[in-house]
């Protein structure tokens, strides 16, 4: 039983990592772009860990990458 629950946990973990990768890639690119624009610099900043992807609202982009980019850009602009 323990092996089965460990197997299910690992499957769910790997599935969530696979779906979050597009969001995290977009978050990283957006954070860098927002930081560079807000601080008027050409240096790449240290990017914080990718947050959990929030649920999409009606005005959010359909693409996970674009959704991550928008959130990253906003956080990078505030840093």
Short description:
The chain has 79 residues and is mainly α. The protein contains 2 helices and no strands. It starts with a helix and ends with a helix.
Could you tell me how far the N terminus lies from the C terminus, measured between alpha carbons in angstroms?
47 Å
Uncertain runs are: none
What is the C-alpha radius of gyration, as a whole number of Å?
A: 16 Å
Q: Based on helices, strands and strand pairing, what is the structural class? A: mainly alpha
Write the SSE topology.
Layout: H1 2-39, H2 64-78
Explain what this protein looks like in three dimensions.
With 79 residues, the chain is mainly α. It has one domain. It contains 2 helices and no strands. It has helices spanning 2-39, 64-78. Helix 1 packs across helix 2 (64-78). The longest helix has 38 residues, at 2-39. The radius of gyration is 16 Å and the shape is globular. It starts with a helix and ends with a helix.
Brief descriptors of the model:
79 residues; mainly alpha; 2 helices; 0% strand
